[in-house]
Design a protein that fits this description.
Helix content is about 75%, strand content about 0%. The chain has one domain (about 10-415): Growth Hormone, Chain: A, CATH 1.20.1250. It is built from 18 helices and no strands. It is globular and about 55 Å long. It starts with 11 loop residues before the first helix and ends in a 9-residue tail after the last helix. With about 425 residues, the chain is mainly α.
């Protein structure tokens, strides 16, 4: 099946605008679900950090399960409809509105339902928009350069998260006096970071909508596109057994990406609950982590095209395990900083190289369909990591025990990926 695109040779501005969307939407997971609002919820809204960790884990886990069940269906429908941008716009707006609504979550246990509902909606919007954003990648470069473009996009995402954290730190949380008359006793400087994320996402997504080419709309009615998309998805799932290496990779990715997602989702919560970091310290920690993660994604972009994406992923998983175990054992906050910042170098490359490996494993002419399965592999078990971490934390009354489940996901992914035979780039 062939698709037409708006431009056979996207300009540098178009490619830059595509990367800039990563810069835009990564403010949401960085500030909301990882370093600031997650910590605010567990320490300032929930009754105890353990209860907050449990509730947060169940909510983000159920949102991931919803994406796993419905994301591939939406992707198949959109593939028949053609254009990606309308889906990106509407789901991004859902995430933006939900983020802005978090301003109304006060440091009161009575606001727990409101907080969790908005976080679930925001996560759904963010994840759905990312599915259609990723599906644009094969149209913007050649297979031999996918590693670089994928890595640059991840690096831009970490850069956006870093920049938003810097603004949140110096412009809101640590500002003395707080701007706009914000009341620290009501946690308004911290709550205002949700408004910052909403504005950040909205502004920086605009270049992609203007300058990055999109596939032409097929003109099919929605009902027809839905029927054809579902039939295409069924056929694809029926035939996927003919592609053994791809099945192995997607299965391995289910586990190691679940570990990465859980690591970033609960990094700030762990730092706050176990090491007693303040909100300002959590933001500083998030800034440092994004610097190392972005640097790793940028540098490994060339290594990916040099040694191949499979080897790149294996190297990063070994390093994530090797540095992750000591992070769970150290008591000294200085060693916690050193180990986690080193670990951060290998987070971005593991994710970016996955997109590159997928292009090598995809049958020629069916890349868009395969990226639908790629999205499924990233979310099929996305609910498992947060939910397992939450239950283990509650069972042992220990955040260290809960975080240890992440290492298990890395090990399983590594073992599954080892036998894979990587094809050469076409």
């Amino acid at each position: 099946m062939t698709h037409s695109v708006a431009s056979p040779r996207p300009s540098r501005r178009a490619v830059f605008s595509w990367c800039l969307f990563d810069w835009a939407n990564n403010a949401y997971p960085t500030v909301i679900t990882t370093f600031i609002f997650a910590a605010y919820f567990t320490r300032g809204v929930a009754e105890t950090p353990e209860q907050g960790t449990f509730l947060w884990g169940q909510t983000t886990g159920l949102a991931g399960l919803a994406v796993a069940l419905t994301g591939p269906i939406l992707g198949a429908i959109a593939d028949r409809a053609g254009a990606r941008k309308p889906w990106i716009i509407w789901f991004s707006l859902l995430s933006i509105v939900a983020s802005a609504g978090l301003w109304f979550v006060k440091p009161d246990a009575g606001d727990i339902p409101l907080a969790l509902a908005l976080v679930a909606l925001g996560a759904l919007g963010y994840e759905y928009a990312t599915i259609f954003y990723n599906s644009m990648l094969p149209d913007l470069t050649t297979p031999g350069r996918v590693g670089r473009l994928s890595g640059w996009g991840w690096a831009a995402g970490y850069g956006g998260g870093l920049a938003c954290l810097v603004v949140a730190l110096f412009g809101l949380v640590q500002a003395d006096p707080p701007p706009f008359g914000l009341d620290p006793d009501a946690a308004e400087p911290v709550r205002a970071t949700a408004l910052l994320v909403a504005g950040w996402y909205l502004v920086f997504m605009v270049p992609l909508l203007i300058w990055t080419p999109d596939r032409a709309a097929s003109g099919l009615p929605l009902a027809t596109a839905t029927g054809q998309g579902l039939a295409e998805l069924v056929r694809l799932l029926r035939d996927i057994r003919q592609h053994g290496p791809m099945v192995r990779f997607l299965l391995a990715r289910m586990f190691y990406v679940d570990g990465l997602t859980t690591l970033f989702a609960f990094g700030g919560i762990y730092a706050a609950g176990t090491f007693g970091m303040s909100f300002a310290e959590i933001i500083q920690f998030g800034i440092a982590m994004n610097v190392t993660a972005g640097l790793g994604a940028f540098l490994f972009a060339w290594i990916d095209d040099w040694i191949g994406p499979k080897r790149t992923i294996l190297i990063t998983l070994v390093c994530l395990i090797g540095f992750g175990i000591p992070v769970l054992l150290v008591e000294d906050v200085t060693w916690f900083w050193i180990l986690t910042l080193t670990l951060g170098l290998f987070v971005g490359p593991a994710q970016a190289a996955g997109r590159s490996l997928m292009t090598r494993l995809s049958p020629e002419g069916r890349e868009a369909e395969m990226f639908g399965l790629f999205a499924l592999s990233g979310k099929a078990t996305a609910w498992a990591g947060p939910m397992l971490l939450g239950w283990v934390t509650l069972m042992f009354d220990s955040q260290r025990a809960g975080m240890a489940t992440i290492i298990v996901f890395f090990v399983i992914g590594l073992v599954l990926l080892l036998p894979l035979k990587e094809p050469k780039a076409r």
